[in-house]
Amino acid sequence: MSIFREHKSSADRSAADRKRHKAKIDKALREGIKDVIADESIIGQDGNKKVKIPVKGIKEYQFVYGENDQNKKAASAGDKQIKRGQVLRKKGSKGKGKPDKASNKAGEEYYEVEVTLDELAEYLFADLELPDLEKKKFKFIKDKKPKRSGYRKKGLRSKLSKKETIKRKIRRKKRAIAAGTWNPESGERFPFHEDDLKYKHLKMKNENNNSAAIFFLMDVSGSMDKEKKYLARSFYFILYQFLRYKYDNVEVVFISHSTDAKEVSEEEFFQRATMGGTIISSALEMEKDIINKRYHPSSWNIYTFYSGDGENWSFDNPKAVKLFEDLKNLSQMICYAEIDPHSHLTDRLGGGYNFGMQDPLNQDGLWYDLLPLVGEQFKLVKINKSSQIWPAFQVMFGGKN
Amino acid sequence: MKDWTVKDLQDWDDKICQIAKEKYDLDWFPIEYEILDYREMIGAMAYTGLPTHYRHWSFGKTFERTATRYNLGMEGLPYEMIINSNPSIAYLMLENPMSIHLLTMAHCVGHSDFFKNNRMFQDTDPDNVLARFKSAAKRVQKYIEDPNIGIENVERILDACHSIQYQVPRTPGIVRPDGNIFSDRKREETFPWEKDDSLLVDDKKDYNLLRFIRNHARNLEDWQKDLMEMVERRSSYFIPQAKTKIMNEGWAVLIHEKIMLDLELPDKYQLAFFKSHNQVVRPIVGRINPYHLGYTIFKKIEREHGFEECKIAREVHDDESFIRTYLDEELCAELNLFSYSYEKSQKNYSINDISDKEGWKSVRDALIKNVGLKSVPIVCVTDYDKRTNTLYITHEHDGRDLDLNYANKVYDYIRYLWDDDIFFTSIIEGEVWEF
Questions:
Q1: Model pTM?
Q2: Domains, in order of start, for chain A
Q3: How far apart are CA B111 and CA B82, in angstroms?
Q4: Is the distance from CB of B366 to CB of A74 less than 8 angstroms?
Q5: Are the CB atoms for B423 and B393 separated by under 8 Å?
Q6: Which residue among B14, B155, B335 sits closest to A1, beta carbon to beta carbon?
Q7: Using the 8-state DSSP alphabet, how is residue A207 labeled?
Q8: For residues A128 and A147, what is the distance between their CA atoms, to the nearest angstrom?
Q9: ipTM of this model?
Q10: Inter-chain CB proximity B338 and A4 less than 8 Å
């Protein structure tokens, strides 16, 4: 009595709605990442390392009752013995697992998504483009790959190009007809000739690889306190991830300095604290030296990032400016980041990346000496708090929000 | 491996329908079964079974969640899905064996009979529901493709409307003293502001927040109002199902059990049927299984008052009145029901009451407070100042405080729709709360 029929499904009906949902997750993820980058410091880590990103859930909000003792619910206990006051489970703990902190705070507004650093970089930088990549000679030839390179008369049977061979036979046939040496109506075969045979030729070719050398320079003198270093580190993290994402081959050099410079490991770089004054030129000179010895600009794309709190011994300023200019000519990009979490003035002047804006209270200092250099290759940024890291990054590399 | 043909389905269906009609005098809409694979089933589920439904990202989310959970083996797919329409559209999953199909078909007869007879459904217009959803889907698509509107704007309105989708009247059929049913459409005429310009009369409340905003917000464009009406009509179509989940499932289980036993199934089906049936009607510890609860109550009614009483119950009750009328101490204890809540100070859930002589009523009341739409707070219009275009809305506090995090978000949505001043009050921890 009922009717039976095949379901007529419109090809994958929910595809469009799934795509919209995915777009929302991606957006939430990107927003979550911006909060998280300031907390991560994983330069040099394997791209497969996983980080947890809190994502604002794609929730559908409605009025609901709060979880409290007025909100009583009922359930069946099956065949289990129960008594009043019995504790059922801790909130948020799922069986044996640890309590899920992220989902507990802020009323379960967040959930965590685990992504690898590679994915993270992809999310971060999908919208951005590196400034004009000049084609360089590359130091490394990472792998040689066979590439097609025309045809040859001799070769292996498996490399025989049927198309080219037949083309030649047809050409020869037409010539024969024109010359009257072969009559198509005669029923006679027109066989392949050895001259028709063409073989695909492969040649080993060098795959161009783009290599980048990143120089992270930092002032570790007494005035660079923990908070400043933390900001610098966060900034470097995102720079590193970006360049690693864009280049196949990335090498990082860490140079820390106070009155003199030293090439250090990543770990030392962020830990090293010294007393004493600040001579920026010492680090710049060392970089120049290292570039000359190890990373010649003809084979390496060089990126230089300097961060400090803006303090320098004033006699050193002219020298530092000169060196910055030299390095600017060697580098794809060079950035001078002034990190000052205690500056409220810059906040009022409209964010921490107000390069080009005159600080009315302080007209001298390295910052102002460097202003004439600002351009495509030379960037000045100020970072006063972690939320300015991402905008600073965008100032440097452009891109959309 | 398929152990059935469409011919098998037809033959068994004839027997099922014959028993349902002749032995139990059921009255249901003709059923049209669609045979689909599991992925299509998940797709249909995402849109609550409707063959056409307007687009919204939340259905994509539902699809992903269901598909993930199913693929991970976290949950199976339901045996049955049937739509309240005339004819009723139901789905049979290609991968299921014949024994499951038999159960599903008998079960669907129960549901369709319930849709046709329960008074909560009388305003759902099952004859035209499919056409209505189809037209809504077309219009939404049109707005999405309209270069002056676009998907972002459509989503903004739908997101906001969905946040208050249940802030519409929840009593589809109220029995008037003269015995006639007084439907929602007629009821609106009794509100003065629907007809003339007079303001809200004291002690009048309008429970149709969605419609009130649609009618009185000053900056809404026609396409926005159209979307709002769509969501409202969708809600009034689904609310009866939400209000009768326990009864509807209980009734369908009761019916499929009877029919399956009457069919005198061959052994190969019989055993598999009992296995599936027992899975459906077992209690789930720590939760309420609506199939189990509804079925158990109907069994009790049948035991004490006969099957005819069951049929009357399926006509006149919703879950709330059903439970209030028939769930007694004995049954509470048999079901081993308890009430529990979250103790903020202890940061844990603990049992408040169990189904003994002192506790069963409080357990039953906790249950009632969470059936159907009882778990969705009511927020209604209490006043409207036409001069300043200020909307006054209030949460009807029933002892349970709102979750403020959610309430704030929804408040933002309401403000987005109303686009003018709103006074929204509730009670939080015993004190008046103004948003």
A1: 0.67
A2: 20-59+101-126 (no CATH), 144-206 (no CATH), 211-397 (3.40.50.410)
A3: 7
A4: yes
A5: yes
A6: B14
A7: P
A8: 31
A9: 0.87
A10: no
